[in-house]
Amino acid sequence: MSQIILECRSLTKAFDGIRAVDNVWLAVERQQIVAIIGPNGAGKTTLFNLCTGFLRPDSGFIRFKGQDITRFAPNQITLLGIARTFQDLRLIRQMTVLENVLLAIPHQAGEGFWGAIAGRRSAREERTNHKQAMEWLKFVGLENKVSDLAGALSYGQQKLLGLACCLATGAEVLMLDEPVAGVEPATNDRILDYLRHLPSLGKTVVFIEHNLSAVQTVANSVVVMDEGKVIAEGSWEQVSQKARVLEAYLA
Amino acid sequence: MDYLLHILILIGIYLIAAASLNFVAGYTGLLSVAHAAFYGVGAYIAALMALKLGAPFWLSLPCATAMAAMLAAVVAIPALRVHDDYFVIATFCLQVIATSVMNNWIDVTGGPLGLPGIPHPTLFGVSLSAHWQMALLVWAIAGLSLWLLHRLVSAPFGRVLKAIREDEVFTRSLGKNVVKYKVLAFVIGAAFAAVSGSLYAVYMTYIDPTSFTVHESIFMLAIVIVGGAGNLWGSVAGAAVLVALPELLRFVGLPSAIAANVRQMLYGASLVGMMLWRPQGLLGKYRLD
């Protein structure tokens, strides 16, 4: 079995002639934690949108476990095994914390028309899913908030709920867009702790982050982007030495 | 007595239409103003099958429902490619097309003169022509419709619909096929609208295009909003209030010369007042915007 789970080959995406992602080659190994850093407008979120199907690349390929997923829809990609969070923190704020996590659980019979009408199997399934959702909520430490509305949580707690939803999809690869940005220090440390834990659960993590100390503490490898290109790749020690990286950050 | 039963029957018919529109607009967030078009398709198909083929209501009802569902599936594909305000406009166009077909396809629909002489449904050889018989039929079907819709919205299926209403992008990111659900919700809504329309045709025994215009769609939307979007019981309450209110205003004792106009004004004013004091509707928690 190949160690590479997610792979981008000469990926390019332009908006009005500006190459937001410009010939990016990237290979993510199983159960690694990869950080993507770079100044604003470097193309990090665009790269995420391409990998998760929210944008179609102009050219290039994306492979997941050897399968070409370049033209797949976002929902197909999630079910295959790449789930994501959003920079602007998306949740169903009018639903409870528990309902948000239940929503994320894949392949529910009760989500089909006949399954919903018939009801019996879906009621049994809902109980199992309930337990599963509670486990993810315990994992992120929100088990006391299950019946609160998602919109009533603090910002940090909403980030944790977003992570729980992402995990509940069952996806192997989690692409987290700024998981600790804007979070108070205590929650910041908690989130980083959970991230460090994920490879032992068989998960692979790719995350975008501006907080370099967070990158330094959890990432196994770092990818530096600037103006749509990957300008450096390697361990934190390796990339932080490179002159071009310093330049990109200081410029 | 028959007058009260008449109002009760109309409430029953409108609650099926409104509850199904609530399913589409209140739960899924698809603000359709074409509901009366599907309601009309149901009415015309049930009427035509009875008049031209002599088909019993028990056959024309499922046929009308299926035809409206198929039509909805066909129009959903272009209509659901656009979002929000544009979807409202797309459904408005659909509604206008439907009304003009009813008005102009004279060979089939009878045009503005409509279709008279639609027979009452029969059960075990007995024609259900008395008001109490029709009331029982309408409310039995309304109860069954509500039960089915309730089943759908209270299952995980309904959770996905509500999630789509709140945040489509997030719902897709969790692996849900948003397009499939929107088409399904639109089709199910249209099917129940046709059930309601079929009942209207066989109860009134006469239909013409004026009963299926955009005004009727807006009236159904008003029931959903007044009753409470995203709450099926709200649509029951909304149908009761909006159908009965103009009738109650008959008893206010206005001078007959101005009665009709003043009634319309009071009706409008009470709706505006309702929106100011309780924008989420009688039983709703959620504000449709």
In brief:
The complex is a heterodimer of chains A (251) and B (289). Chain A is an alpha/beta fold.
SS summary, helix count of chain B? 12
Gyration radius over CA of chain A: 19 Å
Identify the most extensive interface between protein chains: A-B, 35 and 26 residues
Strand proportion of chain B, as a percent range, falls in under 5%
Please state the structural category of chain A.
alpha/beta
In the predicted model, the low-confidence regions of chain A spanning at least 5 consecutive residues are: none
Largest sheet of chain B: 2 strands, antiparallel
Can you tell me about this structure?
The complex is a heterodimer of chains A (251) and B (289). Chain A has 251 residues and is of the alpha/beta class. Chain A has helices at 44-51, 74-80, 97-104, 113-118, 120-139, 155-168, 185-197, 212-218, 236-241, 243-250, and strands at 4-15, 18-29, 33-37, 59-64, 67-68, 82-84, 173-177, 204-208, 221-226, 229-234. In chain A, the strands form two sheets. Chain A has a six-stranded mixed sheet, sandwiched between helices. Chain B is mainly α and 289 residues long. Chain B has one domain. Helix content of chain B is 73%, strand content 1%. Chain B is built from twelve helices and two strands; from the N terminus they run αααααββααααααα. A two-stranded antiparallel ribbon of chain B has the order 1-2. In chain B, helix 1 (2-27) packs antiparallel against helix 9, helix 3 (57-79) runs antiparallel to helix 9 and helix 6 (131-154) runs antiparallel to helix 9. The mean pLDDT of chain B is 91. The interface between A and B is medium-sized, with 35 and 26 residues.
